[in-house]
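--- STAGE predict ---
source: upstream dedup step, 1 unique chain passed
mode: sequence only
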Amino acid sequence: KNMLLSKRLSCTLGLGRTPHYTLRLYSTPINYDSFINSSGSKRLPSPIRALQPLMAIPGMISLGGGLPNPSLFPFKSLEFTVEDTKITLTDAELAAALQYSGSYGLDKLVTILKDHQQRVHNLPYQDKKDWHVMVSNGSQDALFKAFDVLLEPNHDSLIVENPTYSGALAALLPLGLNLVGIPVDENGMVVDELEKVLENWDTKYPGKRRPRVIYTIPTGQNPSGATLSASRREQLYKVASKYNLLILEDDPYWDLRFGGDDLKSLISMDTEGRVLRFDSFSKICSSGLRLGYATGPAPLIEKIQLHQQVSALHPSGISQMMLAKLLEHWGHEGFVRHTQKVKDFYRQKRDELLEALESEITPGYATWHVPSAGMFFWIKVEGIKDTTDLISQKAVHNKVLMVPGRSFQPEGLDSPHVRASFSTATKENLREATKRFNKLLTELHSE
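--- STAGE serialize ---
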């Protein structure tokens, strides 16, 4: 059994001083090679990409890399405004942003993100070399690369939530995996059900390979809006440890929590090095910047980074440098103030849709729970097996857009649910959309 134990030992020395030493004892380290699929294990570093850090050595004359000559770049300056402050890239920063760069991300941004992760999640790694960060073209890009590195097409089983993110399903379904959906309630994944599945795997899924990976959206889950409770987070990590599973913690709504500031992320309790975490700036800064990042054990991040070397090379240098300058301008406290404004805004939008639902939906026609994070209500329509036709045809005809629940089913089964987002519609439009939706429900119940 893989296990990392931490003990704090005290000893009293002369002069009455009592220092504390943290001793971490490893029994059997995780064999990450056993989690990498056949294509991922064969992927080697690009010999050209390997030259990138060597070019920064003073006095080095490079005839190796195929870098375009920067004197021909037409962009000579870059300035942007944040609130009332103008931020200007230095000549060196602009040059770095415009040229090819390392596949982990611009050093300036990577350094800021590593400091941020340590501040926010208090990562329990023994050494800073044990973990790393990789910047990606949005968190979904890093997530897709992780799928592509860890999962063997037409062979592997994967634990997912039911329902789960349709974008993840779009990446997973073509791989021919055995997707095993674990029910979600208002407190997130029902981990008791997960343990039952794993305990009885050979009976439930005879001939199927045991899963090695869990994919979860623990905060403001898309589409259900559920947030995994503190006790279930601890339980999930224990189950992953017991059955030697990696956890893919997809957490783009972490900074959209409407409470529960003391909630711990899964990576913050990762004493064994089995969590890969995916964060996004799309919800808190700009979706058009297309920037997210993965955090986790260095050997796993390296494998994902090798994938990036042969696909995107690296995310946009302009986007990365703009974000680095923004975060540098804010500092950690400024970032916290900004995300608090984001939380307050979306909490208000949630309350506006909740008010509309409570006042406009006829009792008995639909039920829902109140999300404590994210952007979505997961509404169950009573008296119907599947909402696909209702939402895709009748709702569109009545000019209200929602997403039918079947879109989020890992096995493509019927669903009586719909997903409603409260992120962009005005208060008046949320009320009007709810009225139109209730009209459809009234017609449904009168049939």
